[in-house]
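Re: Re: ligand-bound prediction request (bumping)

Still looking for help on this. To restate: I need the protein modeled with iron/sulfur cluster bound, output as structure tokens. Inputs repeated here so nobody has to scroll up.
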Amino acid sequence: MTKQELIKERRSQEWRTELRKAHPNKERIAYERTKMSELPIAERITSFHEEVSLGYTREEAMAEARRCLDCPTPGCVEGCPVGIHIPSFIKLIEKGEMLEAVGIIRETSSLPAVCGRVCPQEKQCESQCIYTLSLKKQAVSIGNLERYVADYERMHRAKNAAPKASSQPKLGRIAVVGSGPAGLSFATDMAKWGYEVTVYEALSQLGGVLRYGIPEFCLPNSIIEDELDKMRELGVTFQTNTTFGQTLTYDDLKAQGVDGVFIATGVGVPNAMGIPGEDLTGVYTASEYLAKYNLMSPEELSEALPELQGKRVAVIGGGNTAIDAVRTALRLGAKQATIVYRRSEEEMPARAEEIKHAREEGTEFFNLHNPVEYLGDESGHIVAMRLERMELGAPDESGRRRPVATGEVVTMPVDEVVTCIGYSAGREVADSMPDLEVSRWGNILVDDSKQTSIPDVYAGGDIVRGAATVILAMGDGRRAATAMHQKLSGRIEEGALV
Ligand code: FAD
Ligand code: SF4
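Reply:
Sorry for the wait, this slipped through. Here it is.
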């Protein structure tokens, strides 16, 4: 059955037809989008670990689900990078069947509690909702509903209802390199389908950017831990502090009898601007800055806080990383925390909710400026930066208007700068595998099934796409698992992402 046929079949179930009749569209459209409660601002900026968005209550989720018109041709599904059957899960929420609703999401997404928190829904599913496109009203809050049912599942599903490792003989041995969303999604599917799966991670903690990049006030570690526990129950094993290409090689894995390898090492090398002063003390990359504080325990953080307070911190960039860094600076006690971005706010790639939160928490935005030099004192510590004013020109290949330098320069005093201007691929994996084809930027080249130039090696996520998003990384992991399983066993399982 095709995706369209399944969507149609589900929509024509009797209970859904009755539900549509129970509340005519005119009534549904009249409801306003249900707001999500948030931690009060004063509490937010003193807490590094407490989540800002607090989630819907059951009543709020059911009220928001009622707004969905259960469209015959739902644009929202087309806008979702992994094609979640959105109206099917939303109508189950309206009916009050929360575990069934999350079951629909899990058919295509292995990390709903994560995606419900960090996906840029306003640019994906919600941008294609009929409310946005035709009714010119706020879209159904698909992301908040996804988050609600995923959290409900975490709190209500009996421990013994989680999928268990099969007791059948294993179909083969699989190695996954990298424990970010791509690696975790791939590992989950392969373990479910009967393989012995080991995930190798270079760092001491698991989760990739979900753990060391995205701060806890956006994505609590307990959510990542919960997903990892589910995977351990499925029989997945994890080996941290293991750098593939250095302490472990492809030849080692082959010698151990591994049947397939999935590489999901992300893009961890921060880009530099190549301007004078980048090596001054007090100029950090986003990875240094965010990972340092994200990996600290609350005790370590409270010890570090006194010397971080009262600083003027400027963050260069307009993506999620920049917004996470500036909000981190505020929580570390910065007296001034400023985003410096070379385009206008309209072009910022960061999620709209994050920009809103950053502004509420006191972030200043200095748009249409780009650093040209960092200035230091005699001890080599940054004290100021020179910023060139930019104007917007014609759109570039990303569709956003290109920043054009004007030659006008201003000087801004600063105590710390965090540069968040993108990431590139590391070289250790490619250097250790001469037959692995990579682009000139170091991204691994794959075909549609995510297979690389080495037949038993697949790859996905940021290491293939360049810096992208959690949902795309997760979708790559699931597609690679489908293809590798089909190659090894000749089967495509029900629920596989093809
Ligand atoms: P990663 O998550 O990068 O994981 C790769 C893992 O591989 C890492 O744990 C790394 O340590 C490990 N590794 C690397 N090399 C080796 C090696 N040689 N051997 C073993 N292990 C290795 N996206 C969103 O959708 N929403 C957001 O709000 C959002 N916010 C972000 C905030 C920040 C600060 C950053 C940096 C990114 C953000 N992104 C966001 C992007 C998103 O996190 C990434 O697109 C996604 O995590 C990519 O997943 P991945 O599995 O490909 O790689
Ligand atoms: Fe519901 Fe909007 Fe999707 Fe229509 S497009 S089914 S209203 S979420």
